[in-house]
Amino acid sequence: MQHQETPSNKIVQWIKTSITARMAMVGFLTLVLIIPLVFVQELIQERARRQQEVIAEINDKWGEELLVYGPILKIPYKSYTEKAIKNTETQTLTTETVTQTNYACFFPETLDIKSAVNPEVRNRSIYKTTVFSATAALEGTFSMPDFTEAGVQPEDIEWENARIILKTSNLKGVSEAVRIKMGTSAYDFVSQYDSAAAHRTLDEVPLHLVQSAFLKTKDVPQEEKIPFQMDLKINGSEQIRFVPIGKSTSATITSTWKTASFIGDFLPHNTDKFTAAGFNAKWNVLDINRPFSQQFFNTLPNLTAYAFGVNFMIPVDHYQKSERTAKYGFLVIGLTFLIFFMIQTLSKIGIHPFQYLMIGIALVLFYTLLIALTEHSNFLTAYLISGSMVIVLISLYTYSILKHLKFALFIAAALTLLYGFIYVIIQLEQYALLVGSLGLFTILALVMFTSRKIDWNS
């Protein structure tokens, strides 16, 4: 009795013998493996968010970044407006003069900043951040305020109610009382509620206001320049910055930290800023170098965008590199499956869909290994270890299913080149697109050259 082939048997036979069916199967498995790749990318983002949360918690307890905006001379003055009043009985209009108190803020004529920063690394679990203890000596002079811009008469200036104000991003880290010597007298600062800071936008640095007691009239620069001097001792984290509000601002920041980066609108002018002991950076900023004046009336703007300073953050970019690597996962899986498809087609050796799936899962596992290892070592070491583990695993598996050592060695060499190519792209920034495009062009040329031997009619 002759055995008749059922439809299911015909389908299985067609998949085994047809190149088109094998291509469809490989394409389907490649698309299926996009799902775990998406989960891997979400895992990387979750770990990166967790890192930021831990760093923010450490910084919150020690003290946030340090930004100093001041000292600023604040003087009240009177302004007058006319208010119309209508008599409901006689229907006549009369005017009444309303007196208002406004404030003028004046920046120093000269401002000299000398700061010493002592940073250290704080760890929590596998995460770490940089905190520091800083001292800053600020001294300079205030010149006679000029009220002509606002049209204020001399008799309307309340010299007896003048104060010195200071804005900073980090009140929590202040370790000693803040005091300023203005002229011949010393004045303590007290903190004040600042509604502008409370209603800041998300991208603005929160600035807290502190102000001195009323200055003695002899310490207010009514006729001649008045010198000032103050010291700050503050614990902070990540970075320290100063706003160059002096008509002539000079600053020096020294530290034992050797991997600092200089940030802000202005960079140090000295070429010998890095030394064997750390760095000694110097700035010199003139009023002509920045786009704001020396006095403001009624409102004091947030000028933190023009601050300069030093960033002490530990560069942690392995999550970013891992995420960029995972984005090439589809390419790695697709090219690896293509290599196995070419081997299967040219050598007539059968490879089961399940075996393709196992190889694909091993390729996805590379990214989870990479994430886990980068949290305990540098990116290069983690990349080499995870890549080597996956290459050895797939090569041994290839030898076990194909029974040919040359195929296993070829797969190992191809994966090594592929992972090396991806690593080079990850390290490059400006030339990543160029190198990636040339690499893909070369791969395409090799596939086209090799595929010419395939009988596509089978």
UniProtKB/TrEMBL annotation:
GO cellular component, one term: plasma membrane
InterPro entries with a match to the protein in the record: Uncharacterised_IM_CreD
Entry keyword annotation includes Metal-binding: no
Record keywords: Membrane, Transmembrane, Transmembrane helix
Transmembrane segments: 20-40, 328-347, 354-374, 380-400, 407-426, 432-450
Protein name: Inner membrane protein
Domain of life, per lineage: Bacteria
Organism: Leeuwenhoekiella palythoae
